[in-house]
Specification:
Chain lengths: 276, 374
């Protein structure tokens, strides 16, 4: 009896301590980034302390004007929004088909799709590059966007979610006279909103932080996205750490804000992946 | 307003799911305007049969007709049927009004008419104040009425009900049962009502179809199904408290015997089951006075195990013949207590005898008694 009460008292404390520790580990790089963004270029390596002697706020306007970051942000936004829209269309339709339409070879095809998730993205970069090159789409929006419109993870997520919806709702719609497309649009899709929100969120973040593909698919300054711009500080300014970190903070800000308002969809996304 | 009701005909309909035969060779004729109750234990294929009629499942064989029209290749929405699901299956993201009107909207009915029909249906079902709400904001009973309304609003030729009352509490279930009966009287539409509750089936159905393991065992009026069950399964499934059963085994002289009874049978049976309804047993307490009541000839003697006083009737549990407890339904005025020895007589003309395969042999002849002494 006593042991149980003592355990009951220490357990939450232990759990909180663990979580706090994990939080710190996760937050440390971001804090470091924020701190570094306010240091002088030489101060970074001085080893005189963790905090800047005097915060150099001027790093921000200087970093953001050293390259056309306004344009970069716009490009990132166009890229990310287009990818999100495309992935919503492809993932909901394909996911629904895999969940509900009984076509021959469905299970095998789905397994094949899943198998592609095991292929590292780096491996498909070159074929994708060759593809858009053949189309003459290098350094264009359509080249940048088109290869990213399908997400197997998204299809998987939507399929799992559609499978949890009660079938009788769709049956009711069929008896009410709705054809397959109408059932999908009027009943299944509206009910899958939480999953669509989760998909949109993850797709947006993935696209926003994508560096490799935009680096390959674009050449001109006008087509650069934020991530590529940040990476460019390496060459242009022989690694100006404070500038790079300042741009990094600016790039992370939209994602951080998004997270604040949409936390529950993140959690749901993680839960959904567990559903079989 | 109401279109002519349509009959429903099933001819040799089969439905298999992998190795499971959910519906086996079903023949069923539902007359136009009839309320048919489809009853059977859980998992016997009732829902599947209903879904086959609705077009939600494709038959593996056989033919389904609605009215005169074969509908095997016609999608659910064009079969002129409406269905009320066990879970109600209301669209959670739509208001009550939108739920009611969905079928009409899909069909491209013009907005004015949709509104008018939705309002009329809502008025009939007392849903007028709830039209702007969502299903999640309704009680179970209200949801049930919306589901009913969604079926009614389209004036279908056939209503299909899949256990629509099973999620309601007892009181509401009785009231809704009455509502459906009066709805049927008013609309005169063909209705197929699926339930696992035999009382519900007998109470609602003009005819009752009893199913077990995918097979339709008997179709008939509630009275016929109750009084002349075609098989032991039907006899045992229909009626509450359940029918009393006694296993009998064949004797050397070609009859069957069990407990205190021996019957002559023709043709001879290897085994049989005697079934007696609780109301067909007359219990006489030991204190009966021959000077007041004419003496009753007892068929067997037993000891009272338990007495259930239910107000209008009384159930007396007896250690009757065989190993199982027998239940007799008696007037509440009969005074017996647990432990009392009683005489029991049987209304033989209303009993049933079933052969080894469970099929009906008929009413047994009066037995040759081997009366036990008490
Ligand atoms: N979609 C399905 N897939 C596989 N088996 C099913 C399916 N639907 C029903 N069954 C099986 O068919 C049988 C009859 O089911 P059902 O018609 O739902 O019975 P009831 O409505 O009488 O309870 C059951 O054994 C059930 O497991
Ligand atoms: Mg069922």
């Amino acid at each position: 009896m006593r042991r149980r009460t003592r355990a009951a008292r220490t357990l939450p404390v232990l759990r909180a301590a663990l979580l706090l520790g994990a939080c710190l580990v996760m937050a440390a790089p971001f804090l470091w980034m924020a701190v570094t963004s306010l240091m002088g270029q030489l101060e970074v390596f001085s080893g005189r302390g963790i905090l800047p002697a005097a915060p150099l706020w001027s790093n921000y306007p200087e970093a953001l004007t050293a390259q056309p970051f306004g344009r970069y942000l716009l490009n990132s936004l166009v890229f990310s929004v287009a990818v999100v829209a495309g992935q919503i269309v492809t993932a909901t339709t394909a996911g629904y088909a895999f969940a509900r339409i009984d076509f021959p070879g469905r299970q095998k095809l789905f397994m094949l799709f899943l198998a592609t998730m095991m292929v590292p993205v780096v491996i498909v970069l070159i074929p994708r590059f060759l593809l858009i090159d053949a189309l003459g789409w290098i350094d264009t929006y359509q080249g940048l966007i088109s290869t990213e419109l399908v997400s197997v993870w998204g299809i998987f997520l939507m399929r799992q979610y559609f499978r949890t919806l009660p079938r009788e709702l769709e049956d009711a719609a069929r008896v009410d006279g709705a054809g397959p497309l109408r059932v999908f649009i009027s009943v299944a899709l509206p009910l899958a909103k939480p999953a669509v929100a989760t998909l949109a969120l993850f797709a947006f973040i993935d696209a926003w932080k994508n560096l490799l593909w935009p680096l390959l698919a674009t050449r001109s300054m006008e087509m650069r996205v934020v991530e590529v711009g940040i990476a460019a500080f390496h060459s242009t300014y022989e690694i100006n750490w404070p500038y790079q970190m300042a741009a990094g903070v600016v790039a992370v800000l939209p994602i951080a804000l998004l997270f604040l308002f949409t936390q529950r969809y993140f959690v749901r996304g993680i839960q959904l992946e567990g559903i079989r | 307003m109401t279109p002519a009701p349509r009959g429903v005909t099933l001819r040799g309909v089969v439905k298999r799911f992998g190795s499971v035969t959910a519906v086996a060779d079903a023949d069923l004729e539902i007359r136009p305007g009839e309320l048919m109750a489809l009853v059977g234990p859980s998992g016997c294929g009732k829902s599947t049969l209903l879904r086959l009629i609705a077009g939600l499942e494709e038959p593996g064989g056989g033919e389904i007709l609605i009215g005169e029209r074969p509908v095997n290749d016609i999608p659910p929405g064009d079969r002129d049927v409406a269905m009320v699901f066990q879970s109600y299956a209301l669209y959670p993201h739509m208001t009550v009004a939108a739920n009611l009107g969905f079928g009409l909207r899909v069909r491209g009915t013009d907005r004015g008419e949709i509104e008018e029909r939705v309002e009329r249906t809502a008025r009939i079902l007392g849903l007028g104040d709830l039209l702007a709400r969502r299903p999640g904001q309704l009680s179970g009973g209200q949801q049930q009425r919306v589901a009913l309304g969604r079926a009614m609003v389209r004036d279908p030729g056939v209503f299909l009900f899949d256990e629509p009352l099973s999620n309601l509490d007892a009181g509401l279930r009785l009231r809704t049962r009455d509502q459906i009966a009066s709805l049927h009287q008013r609309l005169g539409t063909t209705m197929i009502f699926v339930t696992h509750d035999q009382t519900e089936a007998l109470s609602l159905g003009q005819r009752v179809a009893v199913m077990d393991r995918g097979e339709i065992l008997q179709v008939g009026t509630p009275d016929a199904v109750y009084r002349r069950p075609a098989s032991l399964f039907v006899a045992a499934f229909v009626g509450s408290p359940p029918i009393n059963r006694l296993g009998l085994s064949g004797t050397d002289d070609g009859g069957v015997a069990g407990g205190p009874f021996r019957f002559a049978t023709d043709p001879p049976l290897a085994a049989a089951t005697l079934a007696v309804r609780p109301e067909d047993l007359t219990v006489t307490p030991p204190s009966f006075r021959p000077d007041i009541t004419p003496p009753v000839r007892a068929d067997f003697t037993a000891t009272v195990l338990r007495v259930e006083a239910l107000g209008s009737e009384q159930r007396v549990h007896l250690d009757g013949p065989g190993s199982a407890t027998w239940i007799a339904r008696t007037p509440p005025s009969l005074r017996v207590d647990p432990g009392d020895p009683v005489h029991v007589s049987v209304a033989w003309e209303r009993t049933h005898l079933f052969g080894p395969d469970g099929s009906r042999v008929g009413a047994p002849p009066r037995p040759i008694h081997i009366l036990r002494d008490s």
